[in-house]
Amino acid sequence: MRSLARISAAAAAAVAVLLSAGPATAEGAPTELVLTREEPGRPARTATLSCDPVGGSHPSADAACRYLAPLGELTLPEENPSVRCFRYHPVVYRAEGTLRGAPVSVERTYGCLVPELSAPWHF
Predict the structure, then answer these.
(1) C-alpha of 1 from chain center
(2) What is the DSSP string of 36-72?
């Protein structure tokens, strides 16, 4: 009975170590993104964003990193299909790099109207 208690305690300790190691690894992994906005008639705008520590050329790096902190992925909203486009004016948003150590590559083209975008896309 005594050896069973030791095994159970050891197993519980091993599970606790594995559970605590998983999220800590994701939180401590780097976020390094290059964000780009392209539209006709204007030079492309690019911003770099680093989190943990916060840095890069992004004008609102603190807000962008706070927004990204709880997310598992970086996305762009769909264009509203009910909007009627009278003049096609494509605006392309792109992000490439890593989000908490995981590779990221996101791109979306908006033909008429860019929807409300979250903090990382304000640059």
Answers:
(1) 50
(2) EEE-TTS--EEEEEEETTTBSS-TTHHHHHHHHTT-S
Phi, psi of 18 (to 5 degrees): -65, -40
pLDDT at residue number 57: 97
> Is the peptide bond preceding residue 53 cis, with omega within 30 degrees of 0?
yes
**Greatest CA separation for the chain:** 79
Looking at every residue in the chain, the average pLDDT score rounds to 81
Contacts 24+ apart (CB under 8 A), 43-47: 45/123, 47/123
Residue 44 corresponds to which tokens in the numbers above?
């492309």
Question: How long a stretch of residues is the chain?
Answer: 123
Measure the CA–CA gap between 53 and 28, rounded to whole angstroms: 10
pTM: 0.73
